[in-house]
């Protein structure tokens, strides 16, 4: 019953996300442009967007010339993303990022995720990081919160029932010290702040 209620809540949230597609796309495009001096995504060819949500980040990545594959484990979100980006040649896949995904090792130049990692507990995040590292040739980019908490985000994340508090304690150290199956997830983690409350964690695959 709890899982059914959570799925229903995620479906409602997916619809709300769809309403803000254009605004979110503009924000992601701005971040991608600002981050060029640290990691210019336009110099790469292929990218995997994990947890694509409404497709706003996916569309922004396509706009800079990348071949984009996007996945989400929620069919409602996939449906919305496809509708919002129906004119773009983007491959969408419904899959669980905590399990081995249907791609060969180093299948993409870049693997990116935005505001997904904090939803998982520490063990699940290690699985996510390991899989992202397996699939990325060059960089893993995790866009998420910093340890600086904003009151309204704290409130909304508490309602959402994720692991925001645990994630924001020491996100950089957790990524740097991530081991899964006795193997290090990343060689290096560079933190570039978007603002006080969010950052790009630019990781070099092990």
Architecture overview:
The chain is 41% helix and 25% strand. The protein has 206 residues and is an alpha/beta fold. The chain has a single domain (2-97, 105-205), classed as Rossmann fold (3-Layer(aba) Sandwich), CATH 3.40.50. The strands form two sheets. A seven-stranded mixed β-sheet has the order 3-2-1-4-5-9-8, sandwiched between helices. The protein has a two-stranded antiparallel sheet with strand order 6-7. It is globular. Mean pLDDT is 85; it is low at 1-10.
Quick recap:
With 206 residues, the protein is α/β, with parallel strands linked by helices. It has helices spanning 2-19, 21-34, 56-63, 75-84, 122-135, 151-160, 164-167, 171-176, and strands at residues 46-50, 67-72, 91-94, 108-114, 136-145, 179-180, 183-184, 186-193, 198-205.
């Amino acid at each position: 019953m709890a899982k059914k209620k959570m799925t229903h809540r995620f479906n409602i949230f997916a619809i709300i996300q769809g309403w803000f597609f254009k605004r979110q796309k503009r924000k992601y495009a701005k971040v991608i442009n600002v981050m060029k001096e640290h990691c210019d995504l336009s110099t790469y060819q292929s990218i995997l967007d994990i947890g694509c949500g409404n497709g706003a980040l996916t569309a922004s990545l396509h706009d800079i010339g990348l071949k984009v594959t996007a996945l989400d484990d929620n069919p409602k979100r996939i449906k919305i993303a496809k509708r919002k980006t129906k004119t773009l040649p983007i491959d969408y896949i419904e899959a669980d990022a905590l399990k081995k995904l249907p791609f060969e090792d180093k299948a993409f130049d870049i693997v990116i995720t935005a505001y997904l990692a904090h939803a998982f507990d520490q063990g699940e995040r290690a699985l996510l990081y390991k899989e992202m590292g397996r699939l990325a040739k060059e960089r893993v980019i995790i866009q998420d919160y910093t340890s600086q908490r904003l009151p309204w985000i704290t409130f909304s994340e508490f309602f959402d029932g994720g692991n925001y508090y645990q994630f924001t304690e020491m996100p950089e150290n957790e990524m740097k010290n991530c081991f899964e199956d006795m193997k290090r997830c990343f060689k290096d983690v560079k933190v570039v702040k978007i603002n006080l409350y969010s950052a790009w964690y630019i990781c070099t695959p092990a």
